[in-house]
Amino acid sequence: MFGDIMGMMGKIKETQQKIEATKQRLNSVLVDEKSSDGLLEITMTANREIKNLHIADELLQDKEMLEDYLITTLNKIITKATNINEAELAAVAKEGMPNIPGMDLFK
Questions:
Q1: Structural domain span for residue 19
Q2: What InterPro entries does the entry give (predicted)?
């Protein structure tokens, strides 16, 4: 019985280490998003850290339009980055979870 528990604890610790490694790797996974007309471009990591922002000069002339572009484009790229982040972390967590009957958390 204790062997099973110790084995599960070891597997959980290993999974935690894999999750941390995956989080670090996601710092180098880049996601790009452009406004429909290409006037605003954003690059973000899968951990949702903005790495690059390019704003066309014509957007700098209209504060309200720039704000609208930023809101729309940031929301899109945050959604993309979050989806990648969650899928990667869920895959690692599912792979490392011990098979406990009735505990199908990651189906």
A1: 2-96
A2: YbaB-like_sf (IPR036894), YbaB/EbfC (IPR004401)
Ramachandran class of 101: left when φ > 0, alpha when ψ lies in -120 to 50, beta otherwise: beta
- Domain count for the chain: 1
CA distance 25 to 27: 5
Q: Which residue do the tokens 């790229």 mark?
A: 77
The CATH number for 21's domain is 3.30.1310.10
Are 26 and 47 a contacting pair, CB within 8 Å? yes
pTM: 0.76
2-26 vs 63-96: helix axis angle to the nearest 10?
Answer: 150
Helix (H, G, I), strand (E, B) or coil at 41: strand
